[in-house]
Amino acid sequence: MGGKQDGDEAYGKPAKYDPSFRGPIKNRSCTDIVCCILFLLFILGYIVVGIVAWVYGDPRQVLYPRNSTGAYCGVGANKDKPYLLYFNIFSCVLTTNIITVAENGLQCPTPQPVIQSLQQELCPSFLLPSAPALGRCLPLLNSTPPELPGISSNTSISQGISGLLDSLNARDISVKIFEDFAQSWYWILVALGVALVLSLLFILLLRLVAGPLVLVLILGVLGVLAYGIYHCWMEYRVLRDKGASITQQGITTNLSAYRNVQETWLVALIVLAVLEGILLLMLIFLRQRIRIAIALLKEASKAVGHMMSTMFYPLVTFVLLLICIVYWAMTALYLATSGQPQYVLWAPNASLPSCEKVQMNTSCNPMAQPVNSSCPGLMCIFQSYSSTGLVQRSLFNLQIYGVLGLFWTLNWVLALGQCVLAGAFASFYWALDKRRDIPTFPLISAFIRTLRYHTGSLAFGALILTLVQIARVVLEYIDNKLRGAQNPVARCIMCCFKCCLWCLEKFIKFLNRNAYIMIAIYGKNFCVSAKNAFMLLMRNIVRVVVLDKVTDLLLFFGKLLVVGGVGVLSFFFFTGRIQGLGTNFESPSLNYYWLPIMVSILGAYVIANGFFSVFGMCVDTLFLCFLEDLERNDGSLNKPYYMPTALLKILGKKNEALPGDKKRKK
């Protein structure tokens, strides 16, 4: 008994009964005010960075094409010339059949005036049938190169142009993709609707089938491991009879060679047998905790069914995440184009007497009318972007600030969603009478309460996670840059660092998630909530592991069911293999039938992941509430349990009731 007490004290003392506690505390104060102020100041600075980028940036550099002089097509003096035409002067230098090298340079078998035009880049060497795409003239599909003077259609230059055309079919492919979307968009929406319905039904029906489903899944895992053991034994026996041993083959870097040695299959057999034994022992000795996990899954299904609005909260999170990403992308784009382009005068034959009066390399304005001069070929060309301004000198720092803002805001939005959902589901658990004690709008109440009191706590947890994620990004960047120069020892050290940071990020996400649950319930600051959550989980570590694995297995099966079902239905429908649906339900005629199938599968995964993330948050919240309920209460009249009757029966506990009391509604 003394050892158990010492262990309990190592992870804190159990929570004590509080007669005033009735679920998420309403009378609370602001937490982590310093971090809240820091976060708001950072957001203000982020907005200032966006304004500076908007003032000094010029996205036309991305939106509009530029010609060889650096001038925009379709803007200013080129307003009537919106499309960029690529000159292909390589026709004079690609093959030896049409090129003769003389002492005075390269010659092409074309009239001399054309040669001069090509040298001055005043006209293209040939023209191809083309159409505008993104402001650029791209060759049409199946267009053939024209007959050039002195060039046979069978020469390699023609073959090269044809190959170029084959590689530039992106425009035609994009048109076909657009046509496929136009023909199938409503059927894609139908597939996404099916995914939504399947996700809802799976979650709501868990209250009825959670037990049998978990049992079937566990037996399925046991069956897969058993088959793996059988297969490894058969392979091992065959190779043993042949005498195929690693001592005969030796050590090699060809990993596929190890499939033909008996030791490989023996090791795999031992590993699978150990896993099978561990799983069987868990089923025998942890069956009580598995029953508790199943009961919590059923209760989570009831909670979601009682508060259906929580299932659509991921839409709010998605919109906020989209705003953060779009704002960062636009800010980064404007910052990247904040340098003012510099133009100078240039001529191909600046040494000619007629060009002596022109001051070359002096600044000019490409938006103005063409320069009138007796110097042949005089042009205002693009030289570089200026880097003398304050914004340009601070460009790198501003981009780093933007990346930090992206990570911090994204993590804060995700933290907001977790805390809001935890507050709503906690109000469900801590209600003795579900019809009377649950707030009218639990989700809205939790949302307002979280924003009002705990913005700083969410920012604190998001900042910790952001710093770890940025450290991982920096490490990946360094590893990518030094990959070619690293020796095996350095690669091993780098791999260890990356693995440690990955584990640290996973742990912080786990800790933050449970800290937000405690914040939603008790209204404490981040550090206290994280400590209390960690201690509570460590006092019940076996239950934590069992519930986590059972929930992961169930949600994985749910996602597989939804995504796989939508994928199979989409495949059979869009490939025309479902017959007898009538003319109104015939599959559309498509260029690429796999396109709507992939979009449907991706959309189904996003929908399923959003719904199941809410359900997972519900399970975690109810689990922490259940552990707190066990420590706070004892089932007496003054300290009744809040857990459902099914959990009370599993644990062998009950609540005392006054004579004549009505049965609690659970």
Automatic annotation (TrEMBL):
One of its GO terms (molecular function) is antiporter activity. GO terms for cellular component: apical plasma membrane. The keyword Transport applies. It comes from the Eukaryota. It is a multi-pass membrane protein. The chain crosses the membrane at residues 33-56, 185-206, 213-230, 265-286, 312-336, 412-432, 453-475, 515-538, 550-574, 594-627. It is found in: Apical cell membrane; Cell membrane; Membrane. Coiled coil: none annotated. InterPro entries: Choline_transptr-like (IPR007603). It catalyses: thiamine diphosphate(out) = thiamine diphosphate(in); choline(out) + n H(+)(in) = choline(in) + n H(+)(out). Signal peptide: none annotated. The keyword RNA-binding does not apply. This is Choline transporter-like protein. The lineage of its organism: Eukaryota, Metazoa, Chordata, Craniata, Vertebrata.
